Amino acid sequence: MTHTAKIYGSGLYDLAMEDGLVDVLMEQLQGVRSLFRENPDYVKLLSEPSIPKADRIKLIDDAFGAQCERYLINFLKLLCEHGLVQEFAGCCEEYTQRYNADHNITEATVYSAVDLTDAQAESLKAKLEAMSKKTVILTQKKDASVVAGLRVEIEGKQLDGTVKGRMSGLSRKLEEMTI
Predict the structure, then answer these.
(1) Burial letters for 29-54: b for 16+ Cβ neighbours within 10 Å, e otherwise?
(2) Which positions of the chain have pLDDT values less than 70?
(3) 33-77 pLDDT per residue, tens
(4) Contact in structure between 173 and 162 (CB atoms under 8 Å)
(5) Which terminus of the chain has fewer Cβ atoms in its 10 Å neighbourhood, N or C?
(6) What is the reported pTM?
(7) Contact 136/112 with Cβ under 8 angstroms?
(8) How far apart are the C-alpha atoms of 43 and 19, rounded to whole Å?
(9) Which three-class secondary structure state does DSSP give residue 178?
(10) Is residue 59 a contact partner of residue 85, using CB atoms and an 8 Å limit?
Protein backbone atom coordinates (compact mmCIF):
# COMPACT_ATOMS: atom_id res chain seq x y z
CA MET A 1 0.00 0.00 0.00
CA THR A 2 1.37 3.39 -0.96
CA HIS A 3 1.66 6.34 1.37
CA THR A 4 -0.95 8.17 -0.72
CA ALA A 5 -3.46 5.32 -0.38
CA LYS A 6 -2.83 5.22 3.37
CA ILE A 7 -3.51 8.96 3.73
CA TYR A 8 -6.65 8.94 1.57
CA GLY A 9 -8.07 5.74 3.10
CA SER A 10 -7.42 7.04 6.60
CA GLY A 11 -9.01 10.39 5.76
CA LEU A 12 -12.15 8.68 4.49
CA TYR A 13 -12.31 6.59 7.65
CA ASP A 14 -12.00 9.66 9.86
CA LEU A 15 -14.78 11.38 7.93
CA ALA A 16 -17.00 8.30 8.19
CA MET A 17 -16.35 8.16 11.96
CA GLU A 18 -17.46 11.77 12.41
CA ASP A 19 -20.79 11.11 10.72
CA GLY A 20 -21.46 7.58 11.97
CA LEU A 21 -21.12 6.01 8.53
CA VAL A 22 -18.23 3.63 9.18
CA ASP A 23 -20.25 0.44 8.71
CA VAL A 24 -22.17 1.71 5.68
CA LEU A 25 -19.04 2.91 3.92
CA MET A 26 -17.19 -0.31 4.77
CA GLU A 27 -19.87 -2.31 2.98
CA GLN A 28 -20.03 0.07 0.03
CA LEU A 29 -16.24 0.24 -0.34
CA GLN A 30 -16.09 -3.54 -0.55
CA GLY A 31 -18.85 -3.52 -3.17
CA VAL A 32 -17.10 -0.91 -5.32
CA ARG A 33 -13.77 -2.69 -4.93
CA SER A 34 -15.36 -5.91 -6.11
CA LEU A 35 -16.86 -4.13 -9.14
CA PHE A 36 -13.48 -2.59 -9.95
CA ARG A 37 -11.83 -6.03 -9.79
CA GLU A 38 -14.46 -7.49 -12.11
CA ASN A 39 -14.21 -4.53 -14.51
CA PRO A 40 -10.55 -3.42 -14.76
CA ASP A 41 -11.31 -1.63 -18.04
CA TYR A 42 -13.66 0.70 -16.15
CA VAL A 43 -10.81 1.68 -13.81
CA LYS A 44 -8.60 2.33 -16.84
CA LEU A 45 -11.37 4.47 -18.33
CA LEU A 46 -11.59 6.56 -15.14
CA SER A 47 -7.82 7.04 -15.31
CA GLU A 48 -7.60 7.84 -19.02
CA PRO A 49 -6.12 11.35 -19.40
CA SER A 50 -7.44 11.72 -22.97
CA ILE A 51 -11.01 11.72 -21.59
CA PRO A 52 -11.94 15.08 -20.05
CA LYS A 53 -12.18 15.03 -16.23
CA ALA A 54 -15.79 16.22 -16.36
CA ASP A 55 -16.73 13.18 -18.46
CA ARG A 56 -14.89 10.80 -16.12
CA ILE A 57 -16.62 12.39 -13.11
CA LYS A 58 -19.97 11.94 -14.85
CA LEU A 59 -19.17 8.24 -15.28
CA ILE A 60 -18.83 7.96 -11.50
CA ASP A 61 -22.13 9.77 -10.93
CA ASP A 62 -23.88 7.56 -13.49
CA ALA A 63 -22.47 4.32 -12.08
CA PHE A 64 -22.68 4.95 -8.34
CA GLY A 65 -24.64 8.15 -7.73
CA ALA A 66 -27.92 6.48 -6.81
CA GLN A 67 -26.48 3.58 -4.81
CA CYS A 68 -23.65 4.96 -2.68
CA GLU A 69 -23.25 7.47 0.12
CA ARG A 70 -22.25 10.92 -1.05
CA TYR A 71 -18.94 10.63 0.85
CA LEU A 72 -17.96 7.61 -1.22
CA ILE A 73 -19.08 9.26 -4.47
CA ASN A 74 -17.07 12.37 -3.63
CA PHE A 75 -14.11 10.22 -2.61
CA LEU A 76 -14.15 8.44 -5.97
CA LYS A 77 -14.43 11.79 -7.75
CA LEU A 78 -11.48 13.15 -5.76
CA LEU A 79 -9.35 10.15 -6.73
CA CYS A 80 -10.41 10.57 -10.34
CA GLU A 81 -9.67 14.31 -10.39
CA HIS A 82 -6.18 13.74 -9.00
CA GLY A 83 -5.40 10.75 -11.23
CA LEU A 84 -5.38 8.38 -8.26
CA VAL A 85 -8.11 5.88 -9.15
CA GLN A 86 -5.44 3.16 -9.26
CA GLU A 87 -4.90 3.80 -5.52
CA PHE A 88 -8.49 2.82 -4.65
CA ALA A 89 -7.61 -0.74 -3.59
CA GLY A 90 -4.93 0.57 -1.22
CA CYS A 91 -7.39 3.11 0.20
CA CYS A 92 -9.80 0.24 0.86
CA GLU A 93 -7.06 -1.73 2.61
CA GLU A 94 -6.27 1.19 4.92
CA TYR A 95 -9.96 1.77 5.66
CA THR A 96 -10.41 -1.95 6.39
CA GLN A 97 -7.38 -2.04 8.69
CA ARG A 98 -8.71 0.90 10.70
CA TYR A 99 -12.21 -0.61 10.77
CA ASN A 100 -10.91 -4.00 11.93
CA ALA A 101 -8.75 -2.42 14.65
CA ASP A 102 -11.69 -0.40 15.98
CA HIS A 103 -14.04 -3.41 15.90
CA ASN A 104 -11.61 -6.00 17.35
CA ILE A 105 -11.50 -7.99 14.13
CA THR A 106 -8.55 -9.86 12.68
CA GLU A 107 -8.11 -11.70 9.43
CA ALA A 108 -6.67 -15.18 9.15
CA THR A 109 -5.79 -17.25 6.11
CA VAL A 110 -5.77 -21.04 6.28
CA TYR A 111 -3.84 -23.02 3.68
CA SER A 112 -4.73 -26.65 3.07
CA ALA A 113 -4.52 -29.22 0.29
CA VAL A 114 -8.31 -29.53 0.17
CA ASP A 115 -11.22 -27.31 1.15
CA LEU A 116 -12.24 -27.53 4.79
CA THR A 117 -15.78 -28.60 5.55
CA ASP A 118 -18.04 -25.97 7.07
CA ALA A 119 -17.75 -27.70 10.45
CA GLN A 120 -13.94 -27.77 10.24
CA ALA A 121 -13.78 -24.11 9.23
CA GLU A 122 -16.10 -23.11 12.09
CA SER A 123 -14.08 -25.14 14.58
CA LEU A 124 -10.81 -23.57 13.42
CA LYS A 125 -12.38 -20.10 13.50
CA ALA A 126 -13.59 -20.66 17.07
CA LYS A 127 -10.11 -21.80 18.17
CA LEU A 128 -8.46 -18.79 16.51
CA GLU A 129 -10.97 -16.42 18.13
CA ALA A 130 -10.28 -17.94 21.55
CA MET A 131 -6.54 -17.62 20.95
CA SER A 132 -6.61 -14.04 19.60
CA LYS A 133 -9.54 -12.75 21.67
CA LYS A 134 -10.85 -11.15 18.45
CA THR A 135 -13.50 -11.84 15.88
CA VAL A 136 -11.78 -13.74 13.06
CA ILE A 137 -12.54 -13.42 9.38
CA LEU A 138 -11.28 -16.70 7.95
CA THR A 139 -10.16 -17.05 4.34
CA GLN A 140 -9.39 -20.48 2.91
CA LYS A 141 -6.81 -21.07 0.19
CA LYS A 142 -5.74 -24.30 -1.43
CA ASP A 143 -2.01 -24.95 -1.48
CA ALA A 144 -0.70 -28.07 -3.19
CA SER A 145 2.51 -27.90 -1.13
CA VAL A 146 0.46 -28.62 2.01
CA VAL A 147 0.33 -32.39 1.77
CA ALA A 148 -1.43 -32.89 5.10
CA GLY A 149 -2.48 -30.63 7.93
CA LEU A 150 -3.00 -26.86 7.89
CA ARG A 151 -0.95 -23.70 7.83
CA VAL A 152 -2.59 -20.57 9.26
CA GLU A 153 -1.45 -16.97 9.02
CA ILE A 154 -2.94 -14.60 11.59
CA GLU A 155 -1.74 -11.24 12.90
CA GLY A 156 1.65 -11.57 11.24
CA LYS A 157 2.25 -15.04 12.72
CA GLN A 158 2.35 -18.36 10.98
CA LEU A 159 0.95 -21.42 12.73
CA ASP A 160 2.27 -24.45 10.91
CA GLY A 161 0.39 -27.67 11.57
CA THR A 162 1.46 -29.30 8.32
CA VAL A 163 3.29 -32.61 8.21
CA LYS A 164 6.20 -30.83 6.53
CA GLY A 165 6.27 -28.24 9.33
CA ARG A 166 6.17 -30.90 12.01
CA MET A 167 8.97 -32.84 10.35
CA SER A 168 11.10 -29.67 10.13
CA GLY A 169 10.48 -29.04 13.83
CA LEU A 170 11.51 -32.58 14.74
CA SER A 171 14.60 -32.26 12.57
CA ARG A 172 15.63 -29.03 14.36
CA LYS A 173 15.12 -30.64 17.76
CA LEU A 174 17.22 -33.62 16.77
CA GLU A 175 20.00 -31.32 15.56
CA GLU A 176 19.89 -29.40 18.83
CA MET A 177 20.15 -32.63 20.81
CA THR A 178 23.19 -33.84 18.86
CA ILE A 179 25.13 -30.60 19.19
Answers:
(1) beebbeebeeeeeebeebeeeeeeee
(2) 163-175, 177-179
(3) 999 999 999 999 999 999 999 999 999 999 998 899 999 999 999
(4) no
(5) C
(6) 0.79
(7) no
(8) 28
(9) helix
(10) no
